[in-house]
């Protein structure tokens, strides 16, 4: 649809000649051409169609080419395509108001950024300024972005070649299936992880710690849904030691868990506690235009009523991004898209993936909620040894051959379709997974 094989070939040729890619050795890359998309489907340069069970980088929550979002961007482009951040602009105010309405009454302001990494940079900056402290605690199994401080806060390998910023300390969050704490149960994992965090706080010196930065549900690290009570326990530690609690909702927020924000999910936060700062990007406008931001409560915002906030970006609150946020959030509300994510997770993906685990020994664990799932694949269920890269590569090819674009990380396949995925599409995806897993 809309593309010729020649255009597809040219897209690939130009890419290989001139485009430098993220997180890759460049020499042997053979990127798939994505020529177009609609809803939960994308097609390549030859017109082959795929169910997009990656949502690209887990960001296309509203699906591809949602007409209301495209129209919102077009209308804003015709009106005013760019404006400096110092000016007031209607689209920006409307976007901020809508985001705050979903975050809750505890928050009053939004600082807009270009994406998730700089949202975390600015949340960390705010936490340092309001506490007068320096250190940031974050978990080993996390991803917070690729800029200076955000990448240093990151817990995975991407941190190591980028460790310039000082004052970052890592700890282990809960992960019962691969416990660092010799736990026998999810409850024990939560309790021991909290004990470990408190000991890290004490050992680092509580008075030096500005922030605890946590992905509400660590995403790229494997959709590590925290045990009930863990987040409330972290909140209590942050309060006890005067530390700002930042939830990174870049991947988990805006519908992915079947809630507007993952921290609003009763399964992981029955206590209903709220963080001090929330960072967001991806799902807020499904990435139609780059955008992110920090959601700020009055007690932090007010500290900058008379003091200068030493941060800013040329494109903070860019009108095309703001118009896409307004249109995306309105469409998500009008069309019940967040509820759809919850329903699909509860009625189709949750039970369907559990049934696949019954059938295929290679699935060690299924974790997730809403349209945010991971299959933790193992070569041996007893030892839980992660499945090797060769097999994962083969599985990805088998999925693609059957018409599914998957998201894979380490030994896992993440099942992360758009929040608009239909029950039929979800079942089709499960059938493809079933067939492909059987080839292993
Ligand atoms: N935080 C989380 C939880 C993420 O998943 C990501 C990206 O995957 C980021 C931050 C970084 O966002 P961006 O790539 O927009 O800078």
From TrEMBL:
One Gene Ontology molecular-function label: transaminase activity
Pfam families assigned to the protein according to its UniProt record, in alphabetical order: Aminotran_3 (PF00202)
Superkingdom of the organism of origin: Bacteria
Family listed: Belongs to the class-III pyridoxal-phosphate-dependent aminotransferase family.
Gene3D superfamilies reported for this sequence: Aspartate Aminotransferase, domain 1 (3.90.1150.10), Type I PLP-dependent aspartate aminotransferase-like (Major domain) (3.40.640.10)
Keywords: Aminotransferase, Pyridoxal phosphate, Transferase
Identification of the protein by name: Aspartate aminotransferase family protein
Endoplasmic reticulum found in the keyword field: no
């Amino acid at each position: 649809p809309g593309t010729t094989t020649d255009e597809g070939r040219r897209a690939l040729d130009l890419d290989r000649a001139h485009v430098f890619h993220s997180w890759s050795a460049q020499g042997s890359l053979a990127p798939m051409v994505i020529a177009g998309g609609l809803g939960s489907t994308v097609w390549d340069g030859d017109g082959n169609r795929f169910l997009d069970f990656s949502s690209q980088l887990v960001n296309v929550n509203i699906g591809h080419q949602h007409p209301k979002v495209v129209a919102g961007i077009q209308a804003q482009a015709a009106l005013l395509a760019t404006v400096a951040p110092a000016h007031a602009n209607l689209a920006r105010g409307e976007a901020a108001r809508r985001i705050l309405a979903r975050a809750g009454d505890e928050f009053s302001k939004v600082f807009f950024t270009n994406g998730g990494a700089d949202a975390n940079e600015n949340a960390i900056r705010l936490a340092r300024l309001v506490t007068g402290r320096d250190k940031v605690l974050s978990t080993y199994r996390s991803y917070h972005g690729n800029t200076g401080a955000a990448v240093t806060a990151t817990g995975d390998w991407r941190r190591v070649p980028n460790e310039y910023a000082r004052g970052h300390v890592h700890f282990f969050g809960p992960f019962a299936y691969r416990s660092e704490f010799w736990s026998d149960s999810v409850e024990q994992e939560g309790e021991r992880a909290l004990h470990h965090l408190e000991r890290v706080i004490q050992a680092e010196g509580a008075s030096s710690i500005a922030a605890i930065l946590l992905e509400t549900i660590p995403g790229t690290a494997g959709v590590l849904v925290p045990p009930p009570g863990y987040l409330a326990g972290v909140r209590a530690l942050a309060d006890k030691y005067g530390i700002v609690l930042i939830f990174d909702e870049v991947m988990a927020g805006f519908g992915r868990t079947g809630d507007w924000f993952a921290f609003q999910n009763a399964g992981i936060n029955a206590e209903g506690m709220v963080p001090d700062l929330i960072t967001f990007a991806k799902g807020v406008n499904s990435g139609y235009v780059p955008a992110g931001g920090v959601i700020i409560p009055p007690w932090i915002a007010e500290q900058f009523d008379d003091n200068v906030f030493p941060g800013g970006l040329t494109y903070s609150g860019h009108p095309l991004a703001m118009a896409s946020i307004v249109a995306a959030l309105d469409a998500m509300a009008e069309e019940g898209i967040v509820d759809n994510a919850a329903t699909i997770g509860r009625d189709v993906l949750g039970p369907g993936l559990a049934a696949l685990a019954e059938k295929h020994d290679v699935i060690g664990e299924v974790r997730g909620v809403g349209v945010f799932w991971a299959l933790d694949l193992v070569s041996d269920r007893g030892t839980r040894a992660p499945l090797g890269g060769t097999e994962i590569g083969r599985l990805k090819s088998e999925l693609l051959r059957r018409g599914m674009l998957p998201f894979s990380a380490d030994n896992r396949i993440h099942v992360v379709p758009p929040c608009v995925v239909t029950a039929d599409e979800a079942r089709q995806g499960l059938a493809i997974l079933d067939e492909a897993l059987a080839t292993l």
